[in-house]
């Protein structure tokens, strides 16, 4: 028995990261799977008549140890991985997929669940219990419980292969990201770059024993170079390297993996009686059908396209006038957009960054959470962490009761994938009368402090931090009975509401004055800069909207159709991007082969949900604006009906309880400056 299979003898029952050895994982998983199987057998072999408690509730509480080990292991595989962990992941994923199928394809277990489901009218259940019963029943029917034996076997094989392909896809992207280095030894090649970015590039080179400067495909290195570097040829080189991840016809190529994943998802949906993978996924979403998603995306496209084309034309003319650029390319996008933004608003990230020292921004997020929801954050060093960069906090309510443990991990490393995400190490639930509080984490990739400067964030990074912190609040403030309905366990097109609404506070003077102070002088951010942030917030909003819509449409083009006829990933993608493309296509690049959201993460048939949730968040924030952005009554309603409820009720019902009405898209179009 490994340390992972015993109760953790730690403060707040946190994960004992430093004591876990890599060789512990595989035996721990196997033992936990055996324990979980025994718990399932106990439910199945119970001779009492199936009822809600002995079947549905027992099922939701089963496998707790396995879930805990899985969350620790797979979170580390994203944030602090290595070859050994990746190898274990390849071994473990099929075992977990097999176990999951052992449950959903267990006929005797399904009979008990169905017996409870068929008698639900007479059970006098709470809303949460009804939701759980419905979810458990669908968990079986949507995963093959009603299939014949041969089809069940095929389903098992599909799930096993899919789980391995998704892992392989992600490993390839991480390897491609780590493999590429732009090593510069001539300082003139860095012309245009801010001092902070130069210093970071020099420090990176030094850390690898090299002279000069190193630029990589990690966001804190890549984005400043693409935004500020005057050397167009080097921007092109970097852009092509970034855009060709998984598309180099070598051993890290993802083209066949993409085709295979799409095909397996389609076959799985067909086995279960659905037209496509998107039809299967969207049955459990607010949007309900692919037709609704496509019409939602195309309706927004119709509104955004004229603005986007106008903005693009303006950018083209600007680049032509400034540098005689005949044809604007993708590697010119950030560079000339930044220059145009500076010209129009006299505002750039370098002016703003001194006011956004990472520690101050974290503190700002905490103050907002305190003013809205009465939360207190105390940094503690009594709990174990998986890397020295990780910050750990105890979160309490106004009465000093524990709300959550919070981990924050902000800087890039070789073992960490790009991007930003929120996750959980331990779920919230009420069991045996005790409310078990969650352990929540956010992971980002911000610029590390250098010898001369602390970590200073771009405004975009500020909104990213608030976004992930919004997800974290959804996890922390969870207050449901059952673990599978807790926190962020909600419909996928509802999950982005808490994260996206919190970004709105970053644009408000009332908020910025609380934390945006100059890291050297302590001066509060000047009013004129706040005005400029607000004025520039809709800059190129048409182009930004088109970009998001293009990703949503690409996702639906893979998953809302029969993909059997797609033979060429790139050709398919070019076609899918047809109505949304502004820049010339780059032959060497392909997005699908590194589109981790839909081929590795959980966003397949769900990428539209960012825009869907924007409609919700713009409408919800208008309510805050009407009553005051720190209005306690509105904040309490948001906490009561959205943040604490998890997936206990239909999200539209919860939203209407909070807002008093269904969301209106006009709020989003108003905020984006797209309503004429």
TrEMBL record:
- Family the UniProt entry places it in: Belongs to the peptidase M3 family.
Q: Which residues form the Peptidase M3A/M3B catalytic domain?
A: 225-673
Which domain of life, per UniProt?
Bacteria
A Pfam family that this protein carries is: Peptidase_M3
This protein is called M3 family metallopeptidase
Indicate whether Amino-acid biosynthesis appears among the record's keywords: no
- Asked if the keyword Amino-acid biosynthesis belongs to this entry, the reply reads no
Under the heading InterPro entries, the entry gives: M3A_DCP, MetalloPept_cat_dom_sf, Neurolysin/TOP_dom2, Pept_M3A_M3B, Pept_M3A_M3B_dom
Alphabetized UniProt keyword annotations: Hydrolase, Metal-binding, Metalloprotease, Protease, Zinc
SUPFAM superfamilies assigned to the protein according to its UniProt record, in alphabetical order: Metalloproteases ('zincins'), catalytic domain (SSF55486)
Q: Give the cofactors, semicolon-separated.
A: Zn(2+)
The record's annotation in CDD domains points to: M3A_DCP
Tell me what organism the protein belongs to: Winogradskyella echinorum
Classification lineage: Bacteria, Pseudomonadati, Bacteroidota, Flavobacteriia, Flavobacteriales
Give the cofactor note text.
Binds 1 zinc ion.
Signal peptide (residue range): none
């Amino acid at each position: 028995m490994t340390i992972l299979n015993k109760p953790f003898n730690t403060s707040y029952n946190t994960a004992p990261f430093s004591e876990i050895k890599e060789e512990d994982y595989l035996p721990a998983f196997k033992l936990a799977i055996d324990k979980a199987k025994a718990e399932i057998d106990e439910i199945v072999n119970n001779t009492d008549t199936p009822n809600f408690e002995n079947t549905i509730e027992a099922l939701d509480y089963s496998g707790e140890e396995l879930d805990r080990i899985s969350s620790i292991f797979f979170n580390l595989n994203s944030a602090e991985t290595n070859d050994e962990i990746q190898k274990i992941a390849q071994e473990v994923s099929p075992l977990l997929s097999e176990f999951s199928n052992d449950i959903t394809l267990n006929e005797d277990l399904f009979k008990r669940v169905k017996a409870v489901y068929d008698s639900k009218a007479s059970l006098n259940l709470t809303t949460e219990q009804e939701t759980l019963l419905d979810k458990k029943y669908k968990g079986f029917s949507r995963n093959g419980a009603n299939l014949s034996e041969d089809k069940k076997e095929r389903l098992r094989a599909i799930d096993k292969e899919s789980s391995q392909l998704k892992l392989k896809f992600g490993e390839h992207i991480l390897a491609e990201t780590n493999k590429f280095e732009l090593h510069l030894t001539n300082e003139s090649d860095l012309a245009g770059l801010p001092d902070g970015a130069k210093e970071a590039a020099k420090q990176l080179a030094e850390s690898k024993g090299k002279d000069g400067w190193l630029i990589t495909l990690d966001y804190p290195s890549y984005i400043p170079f693409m935004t500020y570097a005057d050397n167009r040829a080097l921007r092109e080189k970097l852009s092509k390297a970034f855009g060709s991840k998984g598309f180099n016809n070598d051993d890290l190529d993802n083209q066949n993996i993409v085709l295979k994943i799409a095909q397996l998802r389609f076959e799985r949906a067909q086995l279960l009686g659905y037209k496509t993978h998107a039809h299967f996924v969207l049955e459990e979403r607010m949007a309900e059908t692919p037709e609704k998603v496509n019409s939602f995306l195309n309706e927004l496209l119709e509104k955004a396209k004229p603005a986007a084309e106008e903005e693009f034309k303006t950018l083209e003319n600007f680049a032509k006038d400034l540098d005689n650029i005949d044809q604007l390319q993708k590697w010119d996008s950030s560079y000339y957009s930044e220059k145009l933004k500076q010209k129009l608003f006299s505002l750039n990230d370098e002016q703003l960054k001194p006011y956004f020292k990472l520690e101050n921004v974290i503190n700002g997020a905490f103050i907002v959470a305190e003013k809205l929801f009465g939360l207190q954050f105390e940094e503690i060093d009594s709990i174990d962490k998986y890397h020295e960069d990780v910050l750990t906090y105890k979160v309490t309510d106004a009465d000093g009761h524990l709300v959550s443990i919070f981990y924050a991990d902000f800087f890039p490393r070789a073992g960490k994938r790009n991007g930003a995400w929120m996750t959980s190490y331990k779920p919230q639930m009420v069991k045996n009368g005790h409310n078990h509080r969650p352990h929540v984490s956010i992971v980002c990739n911000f610029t590390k402090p250098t010898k001369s400067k602390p970590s200073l964030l771009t405004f975009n990074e500020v909104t990213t931090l608030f976004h992930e912190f919004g997800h974290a609040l959804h996890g922390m403030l969870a207050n449901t009975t059952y673990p599978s309905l807790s926190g962020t366990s909600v419909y996928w097109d509802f999950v982005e509401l808490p994260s996206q609404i919190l970004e709105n506070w970053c644009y408000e003077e009332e908020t910025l004055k609380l934390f945006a102070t100059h890291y050297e002088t302590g001066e509060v951010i000047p009013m004129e800069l706040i005005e400029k942030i607000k004025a520039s917030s809709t800059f190129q909003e048409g182009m930004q909207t088109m970009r998001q819509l293009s990703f949503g449409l690409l996702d639906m083009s893979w998953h809302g159709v029969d993909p059997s006829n797609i033979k060429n990933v790139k050709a398919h993608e070019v076609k899918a991007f047809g109505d949304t493309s502004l820049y010339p296509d780059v032959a060497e690049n392909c997005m699908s082969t590194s589109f981790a959201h839909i081929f590795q993460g959980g966003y397949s048939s769900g990428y539209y949900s960012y825009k869907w949730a924007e409609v919700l968040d713009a409408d919800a924030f208008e309510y805050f604006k009407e009553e005051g952005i720190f209005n306690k009554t509105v904040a309490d309603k948001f906490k009561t009906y959205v943040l604490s409820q998890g997936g206990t009720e239909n999200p539209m019902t919860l939203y209407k309880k909070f807002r008093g009405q269904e969301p209106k898209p006009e709020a989003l179009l108003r905020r984006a400056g797209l309503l004429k």
